[in-house]
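Annual report, structural modelling task.

Input specification for the adenosine-5'-triphosphate complex:
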Amino acid sequence: MDGWVLGLESTAHTLSFGAVRSDGSTLPAAIDAIRPREGGIHPREAADHHRDVAQSLLSNLLERHGLSMSDLAGVAYSQGPGMGPCLQVGAGIARALSAAHDVPLIGVNHCVAHIEIGRWECDCDDPVLLYVSGGNTQVITRLAGKYRVLGETLDIGIGNMLDKFARKFGHPFPGGPVIEQHASAYIEANPNASLKGLELPYAVRGMDMAFSGLMTAAVAMVHRGVPFDAVCWSLQEHAFAACVEVAERAMAHAGKHELLLGGGVACNQRLRNMCDTMAVEREGTSHAPPRMYCIDNGTMIAQLGWLELNAGRTTPYHASAVDPGLRTDATPIVW
Ligand code: ATP
Ligand code: FE2
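The model returned the following structure:
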């Protein structure tokens, strides 16, 4: 294939344009996320944000990497899952660019893109993915031609749980990094800390997880007077242990030896360390892509688009509608 592939990410709070060159090399994305002054993300407001910043973000990407629209080979966009109004803005821009430059349109699965960018960047072959983001918490692996979800959250995503907990105590979105700082401060000051007296509910439900009870109990713990740093540490230990436990069981059941992290919460160093420990104990390996490819980014969309385009799969205009509820296992692996 000649030319480069553009990727457009717009599933939730982030609008991002990324690119992949014809040989598959990935280029860092231009990213802009809405930061609500208070409260959570309103889909309409996020969609308006995306529309407002789209043109300048795209110019930014082209300038930064010296790309020209005349060399474009295809336009990939997130078809789902995500917030309807946000997805529609991205799909609208992608359709317009594809028509204007007469190149194929490729609608891709956002969750699968998190997996493929990780496989590509970390050079792993057949991993179990621990996909931990704001809206999603899933343990996924490839079985019989599709990525199958072996375990997932039954209520909210782990990132949403961290964000909500942080917001209750005045820290705006994204709360995950703030909690990580407080937890690190606690463990540095108390290197022999134990969870005794800081117990929170067990979040594992069979192969699934549930996080809202954990959050409620952590909020109550702060209200009882336990220091905020200590609660942040305990919350991370409990929530991450649940994810690692399910991921370990998935590796054992599916007979896989590689663990791959993806999603915004995979930026967390403590989670990365816990995954390393587990993988080493199983005589396997744990991998995490660079942080810029853990969070939502256009490059992962371009990369999956590039794979699909090379395999001959494109999205005709009549099939380009967005699907807010698109499942990870709905996408056949054609590449
Ligand atoms: P998806 O659409 O896949 O659900 P998302 O819209 O939630 O993704 P991401 O960019 O993948 O977006 O993830 C954002 C989440 O990652 C937020 O909940 C944020 O708090 C969390 N996060 C980011 N950095 C860290 C960190 N260092 N520790 C813990 N959580 C983090
Ligand atoms: Fe995501």
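DSSP finds nine helices and twelve strands in the chain.
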